Amino acid sequence: MESKPEEVTRARFLAAASGAVVLLLGLYLCRLHSYLLFHSIAETFSLVVAFGIFMVGWNSRHFLENKYFLFLGIAYPFVGLLDLVHTLAYQGMNVFSGLGSNTATELWIAARGMESLSLLMAPLFVRRGLRLAPLVLGYAGATTLLLGAVFHWDVFPDCFIEGQGLTPFKIAAEYAISGILLVAAFQLYRVRRHFDRAIFHLLLASIFATIASELSFTLYRGPYTSFNMLGHYLKIISYFLIYRAIVYTGLKMPYSLLDAGLRRSRKELQAAHAELELRVQERTSELEATNEVLRREMVERGKAQEALRESEELYATLVEASLTGVYMQQDGRILFANERLARIFGYDRDEMIGMETLQLVHPEDRPGIREIRGKRLRGEEAPNEYEVRALTGDGRIIWVNRRVSLVRYKGRPSILGNVADITGRKRMENELRLLSSRILSAEEKERKRIARDLHDGLGQLLGAIKFRVESFLMGLDGNRPGDNRATLEEVVTLIRRTIEEMRRILADLRPSMLDDLGIVPTINWLCREFQQAHADVSMEKTLLVEERDVPDELKTVIYRVFQESLNNVAKHSRARRVRLSLLREKEALALTVEDDGVGFDPNAVPDPAEGNEGIGLHSIRERCRFSGGQFELNARKGKGTSIRVTWPLKRAS
User: Fold this and answer.
1) Please, which pLDDT band fits residue 164 given cuts at 50, 70 and 90?
2) Could you give the CA distance from residue 164 to residue 210 in angstroms, rounded to a whole number?
3) The CATH number of domain 322-421, selected from 3.30.1330.60, 3.40.80.10, 3.20.20.190, 3.30.450.20
4) Residue 88: CB partners within 8 Å, gap ≥ 6?
5) C-beta of residue 289 within 8 angstroms of C-beta of residue 251
């Protein structure tokens, strides 16, 4: 039994609502566990959406007449940057030392002010040109001034006072931002005819959700209160709505972002064309009346043919300029294909005419596509959109998204389809899955190591202390002072060893020396620890850098690279000599670790996503890449191993 459209819509709505409830419940559970975790997730979501808006707006700037989306695409990355700094400055994050709740609140007001003004100005550019360079420079300058006002000059008005709560300026600013957003909603309503109806409703709902969020932030008393949590919930909803309006629509249904006026003109042109054809048919029936009537009808027909020609040229332009491949097939063979379709599959356009469409599908997916096509031609229910693997002319495998509909051409059923290449998106999804697997593997390995250290070290020492204390208590009953003193001395010795073991575990997690003394003393300490544990390995160490030469954000990375490299030397290399160096080379920092061990084949290093091995080397590589460094590995069996990493240093302004 086929489902009715309203039943399908209701089911989709219920599924979406259920997913939203589960997501919000998950966020609430995160909040119960750690408010900082909840806050970081909420702000990270808005940051991802902000840069998604930039990607859609920027990459569609050449074909969108409506510059509203491009304007927001320029504005939201800077809003997201302020939100990122707000997240890092939040009370409890301990990223910026000596800061309280006031700094994070000031950054919140700065970000929301920039966002509300951007939404207010964006409708002005629906039909107006946009100069990108001045706009980008303007937003960059405004962001720099706001950050300077908060961190450097300290001239931003206080927004939160510990022990008192929100300042009058903070509350007034929230109401002012809400007022600006109301005006922005009115401005958007005035130009609604230039937007797709669904997109307009989502944008308007996003603005009102932001207003509700701002109003809730006028009521909280501290950074971890319920009204603060409610405000972040509403912000998540607001960003989800604008994500659905711009990012999701831009990727899933790019035609919905095209100017509404263009689509309306196309419909009017189609109506005019149909009406004109009807008039031609009516006039043709009167050709036998008089020559005068015949002359007039010929003139009318000439006009109709000219309009038809212009209409066909317009349709051909729209089809050829489409961002997706367009084709029509009949009896399983291609009757028409635009140039974009030919480029996607790597053929000449003429080669594709008459080609079987299944020839373009991966052999393993052909049975499913054949079944879908058969159902559609028989009038049965079949999906109108699906993703499938495809084959190009040179044998490459790509992923495409197909949207098809059943039409009639020359009185026979045909299939009209659109094809979009989504190989890049699929590759990104696979990379994200691989990265998640690596993170989980590394996390599980670290947990296992800490558990082993606690069990084998602290656990056994505490058990020994317990045994000695029990012996001491038994000695009290026997009244043997000399034995009691010896037992207590053993307990003190065990307690001292327990403290040393605890310090060792803490040093493995993160040595306090790195924060207290800096990277150079920490590396010296690490080398001494290695020498004590591996006296049979000689070490040559060259540290020709000053503490001020090493940026703070690189100190932890450099320490971890040295630590993991020495661990690899100890575990795998069987080396007799190791050389370490940290040098400043012109405008770069250079780190080198070399050993004369057994070496290995770099091409045979296992992928950590497929097992538990190879995490150390991948960890070093990933740390270097994410910190902006260039990683080089030279290794051969029997020839030792060399790791070199260079980081460019920023020039002082």
Assistant:
1) confident
2) 26
3) 3.30.450.20
4) 95, 96
5) no
Residue 530 and residue 567 in contact, taking contact as beta carbons nearer than 8 Å: no
What SS3 state is found at 556?
Answer: helix
Quick: pLDDT tens for 432-490: 777 665 665 566 566 566 656 666 666 666 667 776 676 666 666 555 555 566 666 77
CB 563 within 8 A of CB 511: no
Q: Select from 472, 452, 464 the least CA-distant residue to 496.
A: 464
Q: Which strands, in side-by-side order, build the sheet including 630-635?
A: 538-544, 577-585, 588-595, 641-648, 630-635
Q: Is residue 506 packed enough to be buried (19+ CB in 10 Å), middle (13-18) or exposed (0-12)? A: exposed
What CA–CA distance (Å, rounded) separates 266 from 261? 9
Q: Three-state DSSP class for 25? A: helix
What is the overall mean pLDDT for the chain? Answer: 79
- Rounded alpha-carbon distances, angstroms, from residue 358 to 326, 388, 391: 16, 11, 10
Contact between 244 and 54 under an 8 Å Cβ cutoff? The reply is no
The per-residue pLDDT for range 291-318, each reduced to its tens digit, is 676 667 767 776 767 766 665 565 556 5
- Mean pLDDT for the stretch of residues 159-182: 88
Helix 423-453 vs helix 615-626: angle between axes, to the nearest 10 degrees? 120
Which amino acid appears at position 463 of this protein? G
Integer Cα distance of 47 and 40 in angstroms: 10
The three-state DSSP-derived secondary structure of 71-130 is HHHHHHHHHHHHHHHHHHCCCCCCCCCCCCHHHHHHHHHHHHHHHHHHHHHHHHHCCCCC
pLDDT for the residue numbered 10:
63
Q: Is 123 exposed, middle or buried (0-12, 13-18, 19+ CB in 10 A)?
A: buried
The percent of residues in the chain predicted with pLDDT above 90, rounded, is 14
Q: Is the CB of residue 442 less than 8 Å from the CB of residue 615? A: yes
Q: Which residue has the higher pLDDT, 461 or 409?
A: 409
Are residues 102 and 48 in contact, defined by beta-carbon separation less than 8 angstroms?
no
Dump pLDDT digits (tens) for 67-99.
888 898 889 999 989 989 888 888 778 777 777
Q: Give me the residue label for tokens 């930039």.
A: 54
Q: What's the rounded Cα separation, in Å, for the pair 508 and 528?
A: 14
User: For the structural domain made of 514-653, what CATH number should be given?
Assistant: 3.30.565.10
Dist CA 422 CA 387 (whole Å): 9
Mean pLDDT over residues 526-533, rounded? 89
pTM score: 0.41
Cβ 462 vs Cβ 498: under 8 Å: yes
Residue 628 has pLDDT above 80, yes or no: yes
Rounded Cα distance, 345 and 104, in Å: 51
Q: Which helix (H) or strand (E) holds 144?
A: helix 132-147
Q: How many residues does the chain have?
A: 653
The second-level CATH assignment, the architecture, of 13-258 is: Up-down Bundle (1.20)
Give the position of tokens 């989800």: 240
Tokens encoding 356: 């079987």
Q: Measuring CA to CA, how many Å separate 199 from each of 124, 194, 240, 249, 254?
A: 17, 10, 13, 8, 12
pLDDT at residue 208 greater than cutoff 60:
yes
> Between β-strands 538-544 and 385-391, what pairing exists: parallel, antiparallel or unpaired?
unpaired
Element (H, E) at 242: helix 226-242
